[in-house]
Amino acid sequence: MVSLLFPLRFVPMRRALLLLPLLAALCVSPALAQSKSQLGPLCTTETTPADQMIAACNKIIALKVFSGSQLATIYFWRAVGWNKKGDYARVISDATEALRLQPAQAIYNLRGSAYYDKGEYEIAIADFNDAIKNGPPSGTLFHNRGNAHRGAGDFAKAIADYDQAIKLTPKSALSWQNRGISREATGDLDGALTDINEAIRLDPALASPLINRSVIWRAKGNVERAIADGSEAVRLAQNPPANVMTPPGSVVIAAHVHRALAYEAKGEFDAAKADYAAALKPVASDAGSKANQATAKVRLSLLSEPVVQPPQRADTPQPAALATGQRMALVIGNGAYAHVQPLTNPPRDARAIAKSLRDIGFTVVEGIDLDRAAMQAKTRDFLREATRAQMAVVFYAGHGVQIDGRNYLVPTDIALSAGSEIVTAMVDMDLILAGLDDQVRTNILILDACRNNPFAPPEPAAPPSRSLSASGLAAPSSLGAGATSGAGTLIAFATAPGKVALDGEGDNSPFSAALSRHIGTPGLEVQQMLTRVRAEVVAGTRNRQVPWSNSSLLGEVYLAAK
After folding, report:
1. What pLDDT was estimated at residue 320?
2. With 0-12 CB in 10 A as exposed, 13-18 as middle and 19+ as buried, what is 165?
3. Distance (Å, whole) CA 343 – CA 497
4. CA-angle at 432, arms to 284 and 12, nearest 5°
5. Chain centroid to CA 24: how far?
6. What distances in angstroms separate CA 393 from CA 381, 442, 553, one per listed residue?
7. What is the rounded average pLDDT for all residues in the chain?
8. How far is C-alpha 203 from the chain's CA centre?
9. Which residues pair with 493 in a beta bridge?
10. What is the pLDDT of residues 459-505, one digit of tens each?
């Protein structure tokens, strides 16, 4: 089975790679089976431990006595060994060599599954297509292609493939489960629950359907049932079925993280901390498990480290108590920089956006001109409370930078100097994303900032901009493998990659001025809203600034009610 898109993994196992039904074309010859005594059986038996399997296959390949289909079989089984260890690059390499020697369904299936585990969904789909063409109809292949379609966000095609898989193999618990997950992604919670209940009935020894049902119960507000299912999943995850090949530790990691989120929703923070700590112990090898562990690390930090509240400004509105199911926002505007170029408009931008969000029903945590300590405190407060929200919005106006592929928001006390610990002096946007990563919440991040090299000097005579140099921002990697899934995440930037975001000559930046005019429009879908903002900014700046966004949203999202 697979996980649903990137950050919190709704499904603990990345896929169901059921090899045995596809091995008819890779039967082992007597000569191969008897090669060097026990080397053949050790190499070509699915239950052989990974290291023994790889070592035996290595020795057979070194003999240089086999070629053609027999050698293809050895490369295939060595790839199976690498797959058990989560070494997907070597799986792909050996499977590719096996396919060169003898194309076969099982080999295409194995390589496609490895590409899936690397998050390369379109390549995986191509391999599953070839597997389907290279032999008789197989429920396993339709199931695995459905996983790849779901990973790519095409839930209609995923459901169609799971339908076919269930038709061919009606007792496949994993296909029932994954169709349920796809239905949940489209908002059909009741249909998802029906499918996942059937998966549990068919195979009560599997942990993954219980994890998925735990998430659905939490989305429905039934925390007690979510914890109960999570507890049973944790118990079952210790001994996963031998016939389902999954990345090492993935089921255990997911079971603990999802039960921890349920404990947090109930307010049992010590139990949540214990689960997050347990999720960090296994070594994660796949993108989904790494995303789960990133979330566990951030949430454990939020629950473990006390936050010292900074003095509150008299003009800063205080958020009301948050009830479960509400919509919440974090709004920060930094302009009064002490050691780098100050910005005039971010405080005004933040106040305008905060007011607009409150007017449409958001509970807002607001911060103006925050140093690092205050910015961290506001962010931690927000992330703690957001665990009970169904929608979370983050708006930031001010300087921002990108260093080594990671994006950072810049507090007002930043002091840039060569050789300084610049990264630790800022707020990592990826950590905010990891802290928000949850299957039951929609996340929207809007940044009126640039991300670039902070050590580059500003261009002389350049107009005021939210860039610490003139190089502009870099394209984010935050929605790549391992990023937020669930109801989805949208990240909107005030300008395109490689360009700067202008601070503006009026009371607000061009981007924030347009955003504040459209964000509260009733019945305006969020991506349509951003299209209007983009058109207004492009026109107002005479094409100097083009807002840009990246989305993994799974459906239409409305900030203001229709």
Report:
1. 43
2. buried
3. 21
4. 30
5. 36
6. 14, 8, 13
7. 83
8. 27
9. 447, 548
10. 554 455 555 544 444 444 443 333 434 458 899 999 876 677 777 77
Report the alpha-carbon angle 322-277-404, nearest 5. Answer: 85
Rg (CA), the chain: 26
Q: How many other CB atoms are there within 10 angstroms of residue 309's CB atom?
A: 10
pLDDT per position as a tens digit, 44-99: 888 899 999 999 999 999 999 899 999 999 999 999 999 999 899 999 999 999 99
344, amino acid identity: T
Cβ neighbours for 26, distance < 8 A, ≥ 6 positions apart: 69, 72, 73, 76, 104, 106, 107
pLDDT of residue 471: 44
For residue 155, the surrounding DSSP H or E stretch is helix 155-168
Instruction: Using CA atoms of 73, 75, 80, 81 in order, give the dihedral in degrees to the nearest 10.
Output: 130
Cβ atoms of 254 and 9 closer than 8 Å: yes
Q: Go through the domains of the chain in sequence order and give each one's CATH number.
A: 17-136 (1.25.40.10), 327-551 (3.40.50.1460)
DSSP secondary structure letters along 386-406: HTT-SEEEEEEES-EEEETTE
The pLDDT of 337-344, averaged and rounded, is 87
Mark residue 238 as left, alpha or beta (left: phi above 0; alpha: psi -120 to 50; beta: remaining).
Answer: alpha
pLDDT higher than threshold 90 for residue 125: yes
Whole-angstrom Cα distance, residue 316 to residue 64?
75
Cα–Cα nearest to 259, from 239, 234, 284, 293: 234
Residue written as token pair 């925390």 = 223
- Best-predicted range by mean pLDDT (249-263, 298-312, 411-425, 539-553): 249-263
Amino acid at 325: G
Amino acid found at 129? N
d(CA 110, CA 60) in angstroms, rounded, equals 21
Q: What six digits make up the tokens of 12?
A: 């603990």
203-237 pLDDT, tens digit each:
999 999 999 999 999 988 899 999 999 999 999 99
Over the stretch 364-386, which tens digit does the pLDDT of each residue have? 999 999 999 999 999 999 998 88
